[in-house]
Amino acid sequence: MPATEDYLRPLPKMHRWFAVSMIVLFVATLLMMYFDHHDEWRAYQHQFFQLEADKLVAEENAKKAELTGATLGTGAKAVARLEKSYEAKREELTRALADQKTQLNVAVQDLADREANIKKLDNEYSMQMRQVREHRAYRDVARANFDLAIRDQVSKEQAAAKREEFDLKQQYVAELEAELDRRDDTRNKATAELKEKTKDRDDAAAAVKAFEADILRLETAKDRIEPEPNSVAGAVRTFKRWLMEQPIVDGFNSHIRIQQDWLPDMKITLGMAKTARFDRCRTCHLAIDRVGEGNVPDFPHGDGANGTYDHPFSTHPRPDVYLTASSPHPLNDFGCTSCHDGQGSGTSFQNASHTPNDPHQAHEWEHDFKWFNNHFWEYPMQPARLRESACLKCHHSVVELGQNNKFGATAPKAYEGWQLIKKYGCFGCHEINGYDAGKPVGPDLRLEPQTPEEAKKIAEDPKAVAGVQRKVGPSLRHIASKTTPEWLTYWTEEPRRFRPTTNMPQFFNLTNNSDEHGKAFTKVELAAITHYLFDKSAQIDQHEEKRLKLDSSGLKFDASGKIDEPEQDYAARLKRGETFFAQKGCLACHSHDAERFKNTQAAFGPNLSKIAAKLKPGEAGFNWLYTWLREPERHHPRTKMPNLFLDPVKQGNELIDPAADIAAYLLSGEKVKYEAIEVSDADLDKLVEMLLWRRKTVTPAQATSVMKDRKYPYARETVKGDEIELVAENVDGAFSDEEWRKRKMNYLGRVTISRYGCYGCHDIPEFDTARPIGTALQDWGLKDPSRLAPEHIEEYLHHHGEPDGSSTKTRVENAIRSAAADAFDNHEQEEKELSAAFFYESLLHHGRPGFIWQKLRDPRSYDYEKTETKFYDERLRMPKFPLNEKEIEAISTFVLGLVARPPAEKYQYRPKGPELAKVEGEKLLQKFNCTGCHIIDLPEISYANKLEEVAASELGVEDHTEGFDLLMKLKPPRKALTGKTHVVKKADGAETLPVVMFKGLPSSRPNPDDEPEEREYGYDLWETIDVGGKVQWPPQRITVPEAQLVSEKPARGGSFSEWLVADIKKGDAEANAWQMSPPPLYQEGIKVQTPWLYSFLKNPGQLRYVTVLRMPKFNMSDAEAQALANYFAAYDGAPYPYQIVPQRTPEYLSAANERYHERHPNRPGDYLQESWRVLNAPICIKCHSVAGQEYKGADPKKDIRGPNLEHVAERLRPDWLMLWLHKPAWITPYTSMPPVFRKDQKQFPPLMDADPLDQVVGVRDALMNYVRLLEREGKLPLAAAPAPTDAAPAKGGEKEGGN
Amino acid sequence: MNSLSQITSCLILGSTDPHPNVTPSVLFGLGWLYLILFAMNVVWTWRSFHKARHFRLPEFMGGMDIPNAALWSIYSIALLLVSVTHLTCASVPEALRWFVMPDFAKAAVDSVVADARIYFAVTTGAFIAMLALRDWLAKPNVGWGILNLSLLFLCVSLTDWDFRQIVGKPDNVPIVAMLFIVGYFTWLYFYRANQNDRRAAEGKVPAEAENNEKVLTWPDLVYTEMICMIAITALLILWGIALQAPLEEPASAVKTPNPSKAPWYFLGLQEMLVYYDPWLAGVVFPSVIIGGMMAIPYIDFNKLGNGYYTFNERKFAITTFMFGFLPLWVGMIILGTFLRGPNWNIFGIYEFWDVHKLEALNNVNLSEYFWLYGLGQPLPIAPADSSFVVKSGYILLREAPGFIAIGAYLGAMPMVLAMSVFKTFFLRMGFLRYMVFSNLVLMMAALPIKMVLRWAVNLKYFIAIPEWFFNV
């Protein structure tokens, strides 16, 4: 049928459908635009502009209050009042101006004439200027013409003509210029006259302007953000601002826009590609880098009240460290996500991949921001509790994150994790390799080479970097000479049962080996480990052939020597042993439960209270300990225990052997007999047989026959693994019962040691080349969570999980409930419980943080209901460490920061020079526990005080101003005002006072019986400080009433010396306790010469005679000693590693000689000779041995024997020595050494004509040329008696020092 | 934990259950869904009322006529009540316990769908039942009833966390829609075909032939198309606003998603990869499918059914096509989308996608069946230093059973069929056309055959020559 004109559907209906569909499409398009425009960040930007405007208004009001002296209240009324007083003040000023104007008009009648005249003069001047310019141009043409003529070598006449023309023009210009100057002068005079007349009016006008300036500035700034439509211009601006916020228009440089930081070099790895990083975080975090003067945040973070701002409107904390251009992490280079992670390109709360800090916060975010866990983004933001892990991407040396004299501890948690890993030796099983093909990728924690061959191989490979960590446990190579098998088994089973403070983890009696099978096999394993260790244990003198000392690395791989014993019939004395134990430095590393040592907390070495129960009974144990004390390296070449120089000394007729006394004291404790563990032969056979075939060396059938025939099926040469223990040297015949049992035990012991990785911490025979057994951790922070095996952990934590056996799930649910109800007792409790909730929640979602948390809490719990389907040797083996949850969080923070994805090299913290020396030195301070004895940095005391009550120090009559200048040079005053204030409550009301911080040692504590207002703390100032213009220097006693004390930050290190001082004083209150103890190493860098310090560390000779102990000799390599020596210099900003001593150069000496003859024309000899005589004058000898003469202390109580002077030239830096000679108490307040060459005394005439200043310098130079002078001048006859002197007695310094 | 205790536990503040089955917001959303269902049924009731059809109650119930509209209105009111209950009691889930999928029902459904054998048997059975019951199914009230049942099933199932994860994933939403769309068009086909078949039985011409008046390109075609275009554009925009693009992690060769799924329209192909080697499933079969479809007009000798709906006149063609399209294509897409989970294991629709779920993959080649199990001797292996020809000979010998089986299937089977079920086809088509046709049919059948063999006897390959990368 042909088509007709009739349509299938009526057209009007079609049109209606068309209209409807178009409307739907239009609405859809509008909706699309609406949703596209309706971004979260726009709201934040609007809100921020509002906040900023409010802030400006607040600032404006504050300014107004400041200007008018009105009070700054809150509320509309107060603002109106303020406005009123401001307007009043302004009107007052304006009125004054108007008055001045009127007065001026009245007073100076011809004002208008004068102004008209100035105008006219101005005009004339500018007309003249025009003329000058015009004719200067003509003159320049003439000069150029002349130059061209010369170039063209025209005739002389022609050149002369050109020259003449120029001269003419120049002359005319000069005339015009003179006229110009005259007119300028006239005009200036007229102006000045007028100014003179109008001065009052102008001043008034300036006052008005100054009054309004800040307000105007703030108003303009506010108007820019939030214009008021109260004028035409304002209305236009408001409209413009509104318009610029509209869709489409806002694409044209609107103020509402995405803030983007482009970081082309800070790459991000996305799937397979590395690409530039784009961070749009600042789109919402608009104030993040807004910092005011002095690095003070403009928008300080807080809850939004009292001038603080909540996220996302607050400024980043610590602008000195982050974001600012002067900080180490400028925003333009580092962006945001390089540290915080998250999706930098995201512009909504959700897309940015924020991560809540705990499930309670997660619930809040779900509600407030529609937050959900987007597992597709590989780098979600770290939750606040793990934030510091990001630092490790660049800070591979870690130590600067916790010990930093510039910024303080910036990442204490990651640092603590690092410390804990070093403490517990996690790297024994889990390699943390900070290098990838020689390139640093993260923190490096690896064991040092274990064999000479390995050390050599690494040394020869330019790309290989050797590990530096020592095994954390003692060597077990010679265990049989130390303890009994029974004790060892008892210990291994549960180390904390014997010593609750031990770091050794627990392998046995845990959740996955407490079943029947586990209990039976555990016993066998324990016995086997002991059997193996004792069977393989060697005498310490049996390793001669393997002794080796690598010269450069200083690694020593085996022990040597023999067991020592004290002299025959030596009667050790317990009481003396106790005192030696207290005083020889043992307590710097060890603790002891005895009453006298109760206050010592050192945990670097083990607690020694129960040593008697541990060591072999009788003489064997005693001799072992004696040898250990005398020379620890004999037993264990890599021990950190130093050689304490406990050599026997003869005192009168009596021989005193401190090591023997200490050993006797330590072994006087309770002796315990431990029972041997009973091993069932059936269990032993069962386990050995299973291990044989499970380890795939033989088939199950073969294993059965091995057990039956007592014969291993393969020849000894072909056996590579632990089965070697079962193979006889020759294959003939089977083993005897006894031998076969021994073989089985050794085999099982060996397998067990390698299964549990005991050799990760201990040096064990035959395990030199064994590799770590655990997962490497260097990139664990990015480990694919699907490769973690949570097993039945969720079920385990549902029903168990807490130390008391209760459910972790219940605990977490309670925590979330309490958080929602705000029902926690205190913040600490809340933090602890929510931390557990965070990790638990993470574990439920198979997250890395949760996994590691539970792994550290209860490593074997992952075997919950898994042991049923596993072979015994498949059970998890990680031991349980004595960690609390806070420590676990710290370790997790560290491990989660190990991502092995370092940014470009320029972003990594690769310190050089002094910074590197500081980092390396810090590590060594910790490695050798230098801080156990020495104070490295003094206590910092903050107290509030009225500035007018601070008394500046004054020079004494004995002080040379030259010496004082040197003091100011070596110890320039540090600004002591912290800028903070503290409210001091007193009986007559509270007072807000500025806070002053200084470094010093406490000298007296308040008597608790005193009335609170009478309690006072006393401190000895140790540094030079400037308190608001008043300079204070040591020796100065600062007394702080209790109410004014703000804080006392304890010293860094030296808790042993503090304890020792107290202990000595208990025995003898008058003793120079501080001088008898290890000296503080405060500002050691400016004191000693680096090369000397290096050699001293390597081989410490006796320096001081007054100390009760000696600096021990550490088991330290050359490189380590160098690094440590450099550290002190670097820390104090002194030059290193080499120092020039100018006082030894011929130039200096000849100049000094000349000067000497000039000043002392009648003195014989040369300068050095005279100086030598001064040094040998009867003063130094009172305390020091000088120039071959023994010291002659008159009163041993007062005249303390000082260090021999022969070392001074090599040991001390000249400037420091000079200062010391001037006044020792300036440096060390407690010293006994008095100022010797006092300004107010003339001593030892005729030497240097008794000029004390020349004598000081002379003695310094003589000391610096000591050896040369001793050779040249030799021993001088001792002066008959000390010259009469009024100098303060030797005790003087002590008095000031206040000990 | 059963559903009910989960209902209550999810409401306890501080619950740490990461996969709550019901939450107040889910129940509230369901309330809206039931309300929509109610509105749909109000319209249907209204339609029934106007159609004024009745059905007769059985004699023992009184045997009286009841208007259809009465039933639908009761049902609608029930829906309204359910909806209101959900909307008002969303935070008191104990009140809604009857509308939550019970655990035994979940277990029953999962045991059916999570076993490929049962799944395939059920889909095939449903396919046969659909053909057999087509008259009844094509009734509007039955169709509407099925739609309601499926929507109710969806609603009740949404109370399960795992089900929500699969169905609610933005990628999967169109597949859910596709189920209903395919269902609707299948129903529409049968509705129309039944009408025409009835007319043919009555001796009338097809409905399409009665009204074959021609219409104008403009406005009847182009104008309509344009309106559709605009409407679809608007729909896509609204969809884009409502369901954001499901952005996942950046692509990485070292870490692929588990499961890695092809786009939904390729999931049928991906499913074939489970049973056949990539060269077959990815290259040969798709080519054969396209080529075969192109060949249909030349193979088809049935002149009936042109330009109108019918089933009876083209039973074989339509059954074959529908079998290829519904169970073998759409069914595979559903399987791939909703049932294939991590490690490409099959999961029930209420089952948690646990990566630790393992399935034994002890597949055995035909040659191994023949030599190892059948003859009890090792596979023929060429001596180590033999030449290529000898090696090839051994390989061919080893795989001879497979070659024979395939040869018989593609070579002898058509002959057998020609003599039996396809006798008339062979006679009417001639040899060449018949061979093309029968081979196409056999290739299509190869997929279900291999699937069944895989499930039944763990058959891996008919021919397995990994040395040449040739596996069938």
Set out the fold topology.
The complex is a heterodimer of chains A (1299) and B (472).
Chain A: H1 11-37, H2 40-68, H3 76-107, H4 111-151, H5 156-197, H6 199-225, H7 232-244, E1 261-270, E2 273-279, E3 291-292, E4 296-297, E5 322-323, E6 329-330, H8 331-334, H9 337-340, H10 359-369, H11 399-402, H12 412-424, E7 435-436, E8 439-440, H13 452-460, H14 485-493, H15 495-498, H16 516-536, H17 574-583, H18 611-614, H19 618-630, E9 649-651, E10 654-656, H20 658-666, H21 681-694, H22 700-709, H23 737-756, H24 793-799, H25 808-821, H26 827-844, H27 848-857, H28 885-896, H29 913-927, H30 930-933, E11 935-937, E12 940-944, H31 961-970, E13 974-975, E14 977-986, E15 989-1004, E16 1016-1021, E17 1025-1027, E18 1030-1032, E19 1037-1041, E20 1045-1049, E21 1052-1053, H32 1055-1067, H33 1073-1076, H34 1090-1098, H35 1118-1131, H36 1146-1159, H37 1167-1175, H38 1208-1211, H39 1214-1222, H40 1252-1264, H41 1266-1273, H42 1291-1297
Parallel strand pairs in A: 5-6, 13-17
Antiparallel strand pairs in A: 1-2, 3-4, 7-8, 9-10, 11-21, 12-15, 12-20, 14-15, 15-16, 16-19, 17-18
Chain B: H1 3-11, H2 24-51, E1 54-56, E2 65-67, H3 68-88, H4 103-113, H5 116-132, H6 134-137, H7 140-157, H8 161-168, H9 173-201, H10 207-210, H11 217-242, H12 267-275, H13 278-299, H14 315-339, H15 366-374, H16 388-398, H17 400-419, H18 423-429, H19 431-457, E3 464-465, E4 470-471
Helix pairs in contact in B: 2-3, 2-7, 5-14, 12-13, 12-14, 13-19, 17-19, 18-19
